[in-house]
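Good morning C.,

I know you're traveling, so I'll keep this short. The sequence:
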Amino acid sequence: MKNEYAWESLHQEMTDLGIINGEDLENQIKQLEIEVDIELKKDR
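The tokens, ready to paste straight into the viewer:
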């Protein structure tokens, strides 16, 4: 559940900032996944 929350939180933050748009979306998702992985490793 913690992973889902981390993902939702980061995704919401990006949406709020208006970062998400078609062209860069793929790279942003990859970056987001990297950030989530880093956060999850900290939690272990």
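Safe travels,
E.
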